[in-house]
Amino acid sequence: MEPMLACMTLHIQSKNDASIYEGFPERYKNTEIDLLGLMSTLWKSKRIIISTVLIFSLIGFFISALLTPKWTSRAEITPAENAQWSQLQKTLSTLHVLDVKPSLDKGEVFNLFLKKFNSESLREEFLTSSPLVAGKLMASNPDAEELRRGIVLLSDKIKAVNNTSVKSADAVPYQSWTLSFTAPVAGEARDILNSYINYISALVVKETLDYLREEVDLKKDTERESLALERERMNTLHDTKLKRLNYSLEVANAAGIKRPVYSNGQSVQDDPDYSIALGADGIAEKLKIEQSITDVTRLNADFRYREHRLAELDKLDIKDITFMPFKYQLSPSLPTKKEGPGRVLLIILAALCGGILASAVVLVRHTLQQRHH
């Protein structure tokens, strides 16, 4: 019994013996991370870490000083309302009275404004001709290619964003867009955005009035040609009527009917082509009256009314009026907050990057030294 216990004791002790780890590879030994050792290593190299942090902080300070500030002016617009269309509405009412019905509403004009506002060619045209922009760009005497590049970069900073998402389009009762422009100076951002909005508005107003004038001219030409055809038709009918009256007069004389047949109680079946019911005397008088008519439209009230309407259209002059294609919910604002990271935040980020980089270099160097020893 005792030898057996001795063997068990020896067997248990052999498991606790350090010699059992001798066959394991070296990479499986000492895998624990010594945090205190790492902290001690970093503390010994505190001068290097602090110096690196200060250097990176200075770099961040200079970068923040060299970065161009960005100020964004914004405006919010919605489709025009009756107040913005008061003058145009008077013109449209006059056109409707004269039977000119142009396809024009507030939504179409608003969409035309957005279309032109987002036009790349119109942006570049405005920036090239604007004294607010040209003076800044020409200050450095750029060549044509540099000027073109600067105009393109500036045009990309003019933006129009729909405030209504596709999912909520049915739930929102109105359409709203935000117009913006970013510039290095707050006042310039507002002035350029306001000037560009006015520039596009003037183009939309001009195009709208030109469209109305074209509609009026088209109505005039159509009505004038229609009246000419109607006059020709009426002249043809009048000539035909005169010939029929002559033939009827001959038939009445041949039949010996001088007076209207209904005046003496006679019963005569009238000819469908050449009526003789009036008798020769009545037909002769009617023929005389018809021959005296020099203007066949004199007794046509509808024709005379159309001529009067055409005369009113000829006198109509659509003058240059001013109206707004949209309504401001927010006029171009003066920016009060600079965009992008602030100077303090940029310095802090640079200091953090420097501290992390310096700590990593110190730890890597310490690890290499340990492996070398």
Brief overview:
This protein has 373 residues and is α+β, with helices and mostly antiparallel strands. It is built from 12 helices and 4 strands; from the N terminus they run αααβαααααββαααβα.
List descriptors.
12 helices, Bacterial polysaccharide co-polymerase-like, 373 residues, 61% helix, four-stranded antiparallel β-sheet
How would you describe this structure to a colleague?
The chain is of the alpha+beta class and about 375 residues long. Among the domains are: about 70-225 and about 320-330, 2-Layer Sandwich (Bacterial polysaccharide co-polymerase-like), CATH 3.30.1890.10; about 230-315, Helix Hairpins (Orthogonal Bundle), CATH 1.10.287.210. The protein contains 12 helices and 4 strands, in the order H-H-H-E-H-H-H-H-H-E-E-H-H-H-E-H. The protein has helices at about 1-15, 35-45, 45-65, 85-95, 105-115, 120-130, 130-140, 145-155, 185-255, 280-290, 300-315, 345-370; strands at about 70-80, 160, 175-185, 325-330. It has a 4-stranded antiparallel sheet with strand order 2-3-1-4. Residues about 1-25 have low confidence and may be disordered.
Q: Strands, helices and their partners?
A:
Layout: H1 2-16, H2 35-44, H3 46-66, E1 71-79, H4 86-97, H5 106-117, H6 120-129, H7 131-138, H8 144-155, E2 158-162, E3 177-183, H9 186-255, H10 279-292, H11 301-315, E4 326-330, H12 343-372
Antiparallel strand pairs: 1-3, 1-4, 2-3
